[in-house]
Amino acid sequence: MDVAISRSAVTGRVRVPPSKSYTHRAILAAGYADGATIHNPLVSADTRATMRAVEAYGGSVDDRDAPLSITGFDGRPNVPDNVIDCTNSGTTMRLITATAALADGLTVLTGDDSLRSRPQGPLLDAIEQLGGRAESTRENGQAPLVLGGPIESGSVSIPGDVSSQYVTALLMAGGVTTDGITIELETELKSAPYVDITREVLDAFDVETERTESGFAVEGGQDYRPESGEYTVPGDFSSASYLLTAGALAADSTLVVEGVYPSAQGDIAIVDILERMGADIDWDRDAGVITVERSTLTGIEVDVGDTPDLLPTIAVLGAAADGETHIVNCEHVRYKETDRVAAMANELDKLGGAVTEAHDTLTIHGEESTLQGARVAGYDDHRIIMALSIAGLSAKGTTTVENAEHVDVSFPNFFATLDEIGADISR
């Protein structure tokens, strides 16, 4: 599906979807438990992959109506009857790789072309350090993966600058091992707030973890038991970033974004970024409401070491700002669903943006950029598609984003939501 977005103004009130990051973790945590009810989940292509994995390991998920009703495998995953296809969900694959290593037998994980190109090697190494079997069928550290267990308790050493999801996977599995797992980080941890999210969810499921001097640790022999058997997913700040950017670039009077309460999400940083760029924005934290107006923006420097998912959004803001916007510490953003650094450089160039790409930085020259509608590629990547669609709101003429259906990964109603607040969109 291609979507055409014409320059238009937005206004009104809109609610953000639930957090994808929290939903993944809550579904798998409910799987590790004997079961749980998950309120306000994000039901999307990615989170359905995690639901299918829980079922493959012996649980069940009733998603016919909200909330989700999950019966878990109570810390003892079965060997799946078939290969588990994680489709395009990198979070699913990494989190359930450690789950597979708890089973007494072999599990095979695979995914689509994009997922089969993403690095899994450090997590495979960690599982082998714990006595498990962990192989890439192509011997390149990428899926398809073959996992065997059960792993033992112990200490592992892994890099922290490839993916924080390795830490999340080991913490979640470690709680149900006999004596737990200690994780020693060999390098600085990138995307650290995502581990904070994991620890917050685990705490809600009564699983204790700790931050050590050199990494993380989780005691073994713990039971996943959420209070009253229930968990509620908060609103998603990654998704909110597109709506807030739409308001800063194209609001007619004000745009009010609801459902945005403080949490461990690193992408809360979008509020500070917009403030630093000069946006007229106000956050009532108690009410979970952010109000934003169309504003004159100024370029800034932003380190995305902890907030990789914000890079496409910041790049669009930079193209509409005065001066230069420097996005730094972004090499790890190249290993997402696509190389998002290169993708945004290429597509903003098509729209009239002036961009300089380097290995670990992306610079947008706002004073040299005049956004003009064009046909742009979506790279089958939900974050690229949504960011470019927001750019289309302020570009002259019409911007056509290819393969835009992939927003269903994290924000299935994205285009309907834009339409509701006045965006000129045709599918």
TrEMBL record:
Pathway: Metabolic intermediate biosynthesis; chorismate biosynthesis; chorismate from D-erythrose 4-phosphate and phosphoenolpyruvate: step 6/7. SUPFAM superfamilies: EPT/RTPC-like (SSF55205). GO terms for biological process: amino acid biosynthetic process; aromatic amino acid family biosynthetic process; chorismate biosynthetic process. Residues 8-418 form the Enolpyruvate transferase domain. It is an enzyme of class 2 (transferase). NCBIfam families: aroA. Catalyzes the transfer of the enolpyruvyl moiety of phosphoenolpyruvate (PEP) to the 5-hydroxyl of shikimate-3-phosphate (S3P) to produce enolpyruvyl shikimate-3-phosphate and inorganic phosphate. This is 3-phosphoshikimate 1-carboxyvinyltransferase. It comes from Halocatena marina. The lineage of its organism: Archaea, Methanobacteriati, Methanobacteriota, Stenosarchaea group, Halobacteria.
